[in-house]
Amino acid sequence: MITNKQFNLITGILIASTFAVGYIVWKTGWDFPPVETVQNGFRGTAMVQVRDMEDKAALDRRSVPPEVPFPASDTGPKAKEQYPDLQYLGDLSEEQFNRLMLGFAEWVAPKEGDNAGCAYCHKPENMADRSLYTHQVAQRMIQMTRTINSEWKAHVANTGVTCYTCHRGQPVPANIWFSNAGPNPPRVGESGWVGWRNGQNVAAPSAGLTSLPYDSLSAYLRTSQNPTDIRVTPTTALPTGSNPTGIMDAEKTYALMIHMSQSLGVNCTFCHNSRAFNAWDQSPPQRVTAWHGIRMARTINQTYMEPLQTVFPANRLGPQGDSPKVGCSTCHNGLSKPLNGAQMLRDYLAELGGPQRR
For residue 272, which of 256, 255, 259, 257 has the smallest C-alpha distance? Predict the structure, then answer.
């Protein structure tokens, strides 16, 4: 027989537990169905992609490219005839050039203020003036975009990229990254053991807030390491050679994989076979595309982003004084195909589709 006192106690515990669970669910951002599942492998192998439909709808709303301002003919006077001081893009027709400039203003420039629109990269009193750092950066970004579209089709295919792919109407893309010295790095003049964590990882945004190495992007998206360095499973039963695959190498690889998973909004089986993660001949075709994407990001960071360190002002540099760099999320923004595969380059093929031309 339960007494009234015991009944009240049990009821109070149940009510408190219900509120506690509800609070945890609310504060941690847990979500509920509906979900969408897409099977991309044999049944029983866990080869399936799961996506929250509410999250997908929100991403879709944010991934609609802007309309093309107007059709532009490739005939007529060349841009270099109208603008003799042009260093780049002079081979375009005047219509193509002007339309591209309008595109830049919508894709990248601020919407309000004294430096909105064309004034973000140009001085209104002298449009040919190249002294603004934004103008110098924009020139390199045009070269970079054309390089991506002409030399990295193994990753971007014919969909290609434009400035809007990363910028989404903002001067600074939302998903860039900088070098990370880690928590409490030793200050100048201090002993090296100050702040030393003896290899212990800490939660880092670059690793999806997991306790995996915070410098994984520097290790794999900034250097020119050999592709075999990105691995978890050794190729021999026992460690061999001067640099065998160890636990720390595996942790850095896992951190990179978490970054790629969150960047594309997919799980591991999007690129890997669940029964043999390291087997290329059993992997989905997306793994090859991702392989090229890693090397494309390295090339972008090494060839275009890092050399701009002397051009960017201090407020555009990272805590360690380095240039902003790109990762998978810079273009993908949570989708397996940036902008859901929108064919923006199709409308700007002459302007941004081929190798850099003067």
Answer: 257
The CA distance from 194 to 239, in Å, is 32
**0.90 exceeded by the pTM?**
no
Provide the β-strand partners of residue 69: none
More confident residue, 269 or 13: 269
Residues 143-150: contacts with CB within 8 Å, 24+ apart?
143/88, 143/304, 143/356, 144/300, 144/303, 144/304, 145/352, 146/352, 146/353, 146/354, 146/355, 146/356, 147/303, 147/355, 147/356, 148/296, 148/300, 149/345, 149/352, 149/353, 149/354, 150/353, 150/354, 150/355
Q: What angle (nearest 5°) sits at the alpha carbon of residue 291, between those of residues 288 and 293?
A: 110
3-class secondary structure, 276: strand
With H, G, I as helix, E, B as strand and everything else as coil, classify residue 210. Answer: strand
Quote the CA–CA distance of 335 and 261 in Å, as a whole number.
10
pLDDT tens readout for residues 72-106: 999 889 999 888 888 888 889 999 999 999 999 99
Long-range contacts of 67-72 (CB under 8 A, 24+ apart): 68/99, 68/347, 69/99, 69/102, 69/103, 69/106, 70/99, 72/96, 72/98, 72/99
